[in-house]
Write a structure and sequence with these properties.
Blueprint lengths: L2 H19 L35 H8 L3 E3 L9 H16 L5 E6 L6 H21 L7 E7 L10 H7 L1 E5 L7
Parallel strand pairs: 2-3
Antiparallel strand pairs: 1-4, 2-4
Helix pairs in contact: 3-4
């Protein structure tokens, strides 16, 4: 082995030893594990067994009763039944102030695509404005219109049309505490 190779090998070995000596010792106290956001699994010991996680989409649907309000033909005004549903949604959203939602506006199949997109947007904005008037921060609510593109009821009859004239408040399914 030549002198340069031997010197290089010695420098490499010294560097390796120096780096190994700089290692950290493990901390004596480890941080606690993250909170468990899954549903309880033991019905005999956990009173929350089978209940949705607080602040989750499932909790919203269970406690609010409905994520949907309905409108009359070519209407976007909020009636008394809609106000009761939105009041319940506003109460839940006030309790879970870190949850952001999307309000979707929908229309039935009648009318042009452009008209129904505009009508869906007016419906979604009517719901959003009502929630804001009940104390929900407007920055937590996104509005989108699907017009007639996402019907829940397929059919060309009054019953189907009535079910498709709606606004839906959507809580992301990944939300949970």
């Amino acid at each position: 082995m030549t002198k340069t190779m031997r010197a290089s090998a010695m420098i490499l070995a010294a560097s390796t030893l120096a780096l190994a000596a700089c290692g950290r010792d493990a901390p004596e106290d480890l941080p606690p594990p993250p909170p468990d956001t899954t549903m309880p699994t033991d019905p005999t010991t956990d009173p929350g067994y089978g209940q949705p996680a607080p602040g989750s989409r499932e909790d919203f649907l269970a406690r609010v009763g409905s994520d949907t309000i309905y409108f009359g033909l070519d209407q976007h005004d909020i009636d008394a039944e809609d106000r009761a549903t939105l009041d319940s949604q506003a109460t839940w959203l006030t309790q879970y102030s870190s949850v952001f939602v999307t309000v979707e506006g929908h229309a039935d199949e009648r009318g042009t695509r452009e008209y129904n997109l505009g009508l869906g947007e007016r419906r979604a904005n009517a719901a959003k404005n009502y929630l804001v008037s009940r104390g929900v921060d407007a920055s937590r609510i996104t509005v989108i219109s699907y017009g007639k593109e996402r019907p829940v009821a397929l059919g060309s009859d009054e019953s189907s049309w009535a079910r498709n004239r709606r606004s839906v408040t959507v809580v992301p399914s990944s939300t949970g505490f």
